[in-house]
Amino acid sequence: MRQTHWMRTLIALFVVAVSVGAGYMVGTRHTRSALLEGSAMAATVDGKDASKTDRKILYWHDPMVPSQHFDKPGKSPFMDMPLQPVYADEGGASGIKIDPSLQQNLGIRYATAKREETKEGFDAVGTTQFDESQADVIQSRVTGYIDRLYANAPMQRVAKGAPIASLFVPDWLAPQEEYLALKHGHADQGLLSASRSRMRAMSIPEYIIKALDRTNKAQSHVILRAPETGVLTELNVRNGAMVTPGQTLAKIAGLSKLWLVVEVPESMALQVHPGMGVNAVFAGDSTQHFTGHIREILPGISATSRTLQARLEIDNPSFRMTPGMLMRAHISADKAVSRLLVPSEAVITTGKRSVVIVKNHDGRLQPVQVTIGDDIGNDTEILGGLTQGQQVVASGQFLIDSEASLKSVFPRQEGNAPSGPSAAAAPPSATSAPSYQTTGVVKQITPSSMTFSHQPVPALHWPAMTMTFGKPSPASFSGVKVGQTVHFVFKSSSDGYQLTTVEPIAGGAR
């Protein structure tokens, strides 16, 4: 009985052990399966997210040397910084992209290239002069004496009808006394008419002859008056002076109209002809505008200024303008010409090239080299490089041009650098590249390079950093040692930045 009891107990324990082992194996397998399934699901989810968020990398580069491309990440061989990736959505599109909020903060404005009908022309300078065609002279027709001179000196302003001089003419007394005697003697009309004709022949004014019938008194004085408002340009007599017939006593130039004499550059001399319109502005007051047409071209080129003079007549009803004033004139042709115009402030001119920043259809900003023509007011004519309707940056373009040059969107080196899309990737040549200089401490020297911890380079917008520069040859700068403070000069080349001069600074080792 006791053995049977032990056998049953052992069998029960064995069954329990087998059950527990089987349960453990099933549970373990289930857990592993669940973990594997969860991992697969996580991998799938991650794969889906990665496919949505991962950006394709085209290459890596050093932002300070953007022309050098690398096929894997790492440390820049040019300076102490990691290489930066360039993504497909950045490198595949032309131009640079600026955040809209940043554009708003920078105050970037856009303008549209538009085609307008404008007249050909050019700017010139001119000066006002008296209109000699309207000058009047005051002359004596008889022999007499200046009894009183009302004008004081030349260049005095006079009004129309103002007295200039009182002239005493003794020869006028006899014919007037003869006329009065015939009148009082009741002479017939024939004798009186003959006496009046004699007085007119002696240049006695008509108002004096008529006054004889009213006053019965002879007059020996006549007042000479200004025929027009203007300036007394000449005054040839003084008080008490004797005058003779035909003598010019004074000359008066009117101010209601003036001549504007425009100095036309010799290069434009053959393009100017009478009838061309002129829009002039007084240099001292931009609100004073005057318009007219060229009246005549004066013969001869000035030997000193090499200019041709064109003359026109301008109105001066308020008499505010006087001779000798400087005017800015724009001479325009008779027929209008269609031109593509952009605001002048949108054009970046360096002397060797002219650039505008164009906004592409995808919102990117691309520097474009253009050919410019004449300035039309506040606009500039574009002869090539743009088409009508393109948007250009009208403010903040210098910042964008600097950013574009830094990213090799547009070559900063000028000279003979090619233009167009291929020029963006073309590194500047060492011969045409400008030189840059700074100071630094030598950190490492190898046969092909030198590493410096250098100061900022403002010309390249570089901060202080540690950077490696190439040597022209292994034997170059053999006297320079590690730890010395040096002044060095370098240029940009296809292999990065190459040293041209390394000079230790006295007492600069540290």
Automatic annotation (TrEMBL):
The keyword Transport applies. Residues 136-253 form the CusB-like barrel-sandwich hybrid domain. GO terms for biological process: copper ion export; plasma membrane copper ion transport. Signal peptide: none annotated. Residues 59-86 form the Heavy metal binding domain. GO terms for molecular function: transition metal ion binding; transmembrane transporter activity. Residues 341-400 form the CzcB-like C-terminal circularly permuted SH3-like domain. One of its GO terms (cellular component) is outer membrane-bounded periplasmic space. Residues 417-435 have a biased composition (Low complexity). Residues 411-435 are annotated as: Disordered. Residues 171-220 form the CusB-like three alpha-helical bundle domain. Gene3D superfamilies: 2.40.30.170, 2.40.420.20, 6.10.140.730, Copper binding periplasmic protein CusF. Residues 257-333 form the CusB-like beta-barrel domain. Keywords: Transport. It comes from the Bacteria. NCBIfam families: RND_mfp (TIGR01730). Belongs to the membrane fusion protein (MFP) (TC 8.A.1) family. This is Efflux transporter periplasmic adaptor subunit. It comes from Candidimonas nitroreducens.
